[in-house]
Write a structure and sequence with these properties.
Elements lengths: L4 H22 L7 H24 L5 H20 L11 H16 L5 H6 L2 H10 L9 H15 L4 H7 L6 H11 L1 H8 L4 H7 L4 H10 L4 H4 L3 H5 L5 H5 L5 H19 L10 H22 L6 H4 L8 H10 L6 H14 L6 H7 L5 H10 L3 H5 L4 H12 L12 H16 L1 H20 L3 H17 L7 H5 L6 E2 L1 H4 L6 E6 L7 H10 L8 E4 L5 E6 L5 E6 L8 H15 L6 E4 L6 H6 L7 E4 L5 H10 L4 E5 L5 H16 L4 E2 H9 L5 H8 L1 E2 L5 H13 L2
Parallel strand pairs: 2-5, 2-6, 6-7, 7-8
Antiparallel strand pairs: 1-9, 3-4, 4-5, 8-10
Helix pairs in contact: 1-2, 1-3, 2-3, 2-4, 3-6, 4-6, 6-7, 9-10, 10-12, 16-17, 19-20, 22-25, 25-26, 25-27, 25-37, 26-27, 27-37, 33-37
């Protein structure tokens, strides 16, 4: 059949797309299944040829009408190949796509709605149909088809319900999808219910009682205080009035949080196996209250020798409530706050101070964290001694097994807690360390038999790490784990192209002057000292440069306290200054209260190779630091840093940098240890963990390497 010249171009374009189909099949890009490939090819070649013939043979269409549908076929094939095998667009939909296009074309030619075709096909087919039928916007079914398409998309992607409904709040199916969104992501419904717009109004006037409850909480001034209890509110197990009665009382509110958390954890276990809504929100609120009201108060009084005064805020707390203070305050609690305050009071508040009873009373919640902290603060022997030997053995076995099953997706926290605890256990209880290592080997074998990759990686790494803790075995962790050396940093890796070692120090202004005092102590290491030049003329930061030996440049923001967070502005200005001059810090130091650490982590330069943290806390901080700076060596403390230890460590690092020496952590730590031999000084130094002993950080690095992350 002779095709007029004005339409030859469009037939030629379609032919090019069909040749692409043949090429893709030959390359195996369409489908590995031969039968499926043949069905797809039949649709894209024979089916499309038939559509072209129908168009050319149709006497009811003029030239422009025929071009309209030929162009639509061209767009249809382009869409098919650009979306090929993407999510929602399997290659196998080709037969349905070509068939549906033919149906739409016939209805469109008659000026009839093709909405029924859109309604009867899958989302992937509909999406490509509507995009290719761009020249049929006047079809009476087009507007309805777009609504149907949106509904199908949101059914497949419920996480997108609220943002999409915000664009189209009057959709007839909005109410039903708001209920779907409530079951998949209540937080989004909560957020949108606060908005003064059409969607917010629709949520607030929804007929469903649960949606109404969420909307009521969202629009309340106390919404953030109600939200952690949402699951029990939805089940009618608690009322807003009951929360109102304690929300202004920090102790009463924390108590209610703990009681609710224990209930939720019990429900998560067999036979219920039920995950409470907003459990994470509740936990975050517990942590916030634990640190703000309790931990920071007893930390701030650390110089007070009268324990009755220092720990008065703990009066009245139950053993379970003190337990949660310990595990949730891990990032901030001082050693003395734990060993003299929280830990002993747990047992004082129990009629029968049994460790197994304590763990059972919280249904095993955070028990690995509690054991890790007991080991780190030299209380593990005491803890295990508060139960029968057989129960203690069972407890430590539970501590090690099951790490391949994360509490949350990709969660390594339990495994890191086990890794972190081992060196403390090895130092104090060789028999227990051997028992743990044996259980690790048993779990490794089990995961090999089950071909569980995650489990095999976790237990193989733990086995290597634990064997390395025995210095007589002389295990080379770097070689075995396939990660860069953890024993030191070459000087060349710390110096930039101009031979300078750039350091950045983060300080924070505090109401209690802690940060300001820390800054003065730090500056006293350099002011008036030979070999250093100090420039404090800028309002936001200070620069310190070496005048002898290798070039070492140190930049420290000044600790500024006041409204509108002047620290943040000073740090940002310093960062802009460094970036503008291509000064890339390879040594980063955090000084100040542990609750400032999250801000420092957010601003860490990826160039950092050595990071000295006054307080590192647990898994979350380590994980975030190593995400920002994967190759960093972390020097951290179990508690907030002290100048008595910080300054000797920083001086030791700078002494080596000034003469161009490599940083060898083992020899450097050996020399430092000689300066801290007795009393408080030794205890403070022992709280600091050098990079080669930071098993949690080493574990995270090695795990990511092994899993290809």
């Amino acid at each position: 059949m002779k095709v007029p010249m004005e339409r030859e171009l469009w037939h030629s374009n379609i032919d090019k797309q069909q040749k692409k189909a043949i090429q893709f099949v030959n390359q195996g890009k369409i489908s590995a299944d031969t039968t499926v490939s043949l069905q797809i090819m039949d649709a894209l070649i024979r089916g499309v040829d038939e559509l072209e013939n129908q168009i050319e043979m149709d006497s009811t269409l003029n030239g422009n009408g025929k071009i309209k549908y030929l162009r639509s076929i061209d767009y249809l094939l382009q869409n098919y190949f650009s979306n090929l095998n993407r999510r929602d667009f399997p290659a196998s939909l080709a037969p349905a796509l070509i068939n549906a296009f033919g149906q739409c074309m016939e209805l469109d030619k008659q000026h009839k709605s093709f909405g029924s075709v859109i309604e009867s096909n899958d989302y992937g087919v509909d999406k490509m149909l509507i995009e290719s039928l761009k020249y049929s916007e006047d079809n009476p079914g087009m507007s309805g088809a777009r609504i149907v398409l949106m509904r199908k998309y949101l059914t497949l992607h419920p996480d997108q319900i609220m943002p999409e409904l915000a664009k189209n709040p009057n959709a007839y199916f909005a109410d039903s999808l708001i209920k779907v969104a409530l079951s998949t992501d209540i937080t989004k419904v909560y957020d949108y219910a606060q908005a003064s717009n059409k969607l917010g109004d629709r949520i607030r006037h929804h007929s469903d009682s649960t949606v109404q409850l969420v909307a009521r909480i969202a629009t309340s001034k106390s919404g953030q205080l109600y939200f952690p209890f949402l699951d029990n509110l939805m089940r009618g197990k608690i009322t807003l009035q009951a929360i109102d009665s304690v929300k202004e009382n920090d102790l009463g509110y924390f108590r209610l949080l703990v009681k609710t958390r224990i209930e939720y954890i019990e429900r998560s276990l067999p036979p219920y196996n039920d995950t409470a809504n907003q459990l994470q929100t509740l936990t975050e609120m517990m942590k916030r209250k634990a640190n703000q009201y309790f931990i920071r108060e007893i930390n701030a009084l650390h110089t007070n020798p009268n324990d009755n005064i220092r720990f008065r805020r703990l009066d009245g707390l139950t053993a379970q409530e003190l337990y949660y203070l310990a595990v949730l305050g891990e990032d901030e609690i001082y050693t003395s706050s734990y060993t003299r305050g929280v830990y002993p009071r747990i047992w004082q508040r129990m009629t029968k101070p049994r460790a197994d009873s304590l763990i059972m009373s919280v249904h095993g919640d955070f028990f690995r964290k509690f054991i890790k902290m007991a080991a780190g603060y030299n209380e593990l022997t005491d803890f295990l001694g508060k139960m029968d030997k057989q129960n203690a053995e069972t407890m430590m076995k539970a501590f090690v097994i099951g790490l391949e099953k994360p509490r949350r997706i990709n969660d390594l926290e339990d495994a890191v807690d086990v890794a972190d605890s081992y060196s403390s256990i090895m130092d104090k209880n060789k028999e227990l360390a051997d028992f743990i290592l044996n259980e690790v080997n048993v779990s490794y074998t089990k995961n090999v038999q089950e071909n569980n990759k995650r489990g095999m990686v976790i237990y193989n790494l733990l086995r290597i790490l634990f064997e390395s803790a025995d210095t007589t075995k002389k295990v080379d962790l770097s070689a075995l784990l396939g990660i860069p050396s953890i024993y030191g940093k070459d000087y060349s890796s710390l110096a930039d192209d101009s031979g300078r070692v750039i350091q950045q120090v983060f300080f924070y202004g505090d109401e209690d002057k802690d940060g300001q005092n820390s800054y003065q102590n730090f500056m006293n290491m350099f002011r008036g000292k030979p070999g250093w030049r100090v420039d404090e003329r800028k309002a936001e930061w200070t620069s310190i440069t070496s005048t002898k030996g290798k070039p070492v440049w140190i930049f420290a923001n000044k600790p500024l306290y006041g409204e509108d967070d002047p620290d943040d502005k000073a740090q940002n200005k310093l960062i802009e200054y460094l970036q503008a001059r291509n000064l890339t810090p390879t040594v980063v130091i955090h000084r100040g209260h542990s609750y400032h650490l999250s801000t420092t982590i957010q601003k860490l330069p990826s160039s950092a190779r050595i990071i000295v943290l006054g307080s590192c806390g647990g898994y979350n901080n380590l994980n975030e630091v190593l995400t920002a700076c994967p190759d960093a060596h972390i020097v951290s403390s179990k508690q907030v840093g002290t100048k008595k230890v910080n300054e000797p460590i920083l001086q030791a690092i700078n002494e080596r940098l000034l003469v161009g020496r490599n940083i060898d952590w083992i020899s450097m730590w050996r020399e430092l240890k000689k300066k801290f031999v007795t009393g408080d000084a030794k205890e403070m130094f022992d709280d600091y963990i050098p990079p080669y002993k930071n098993l949690g950080a080493i574990f995270i690095k090695a795990y990511r390497k092994s899993m290809g992350e």
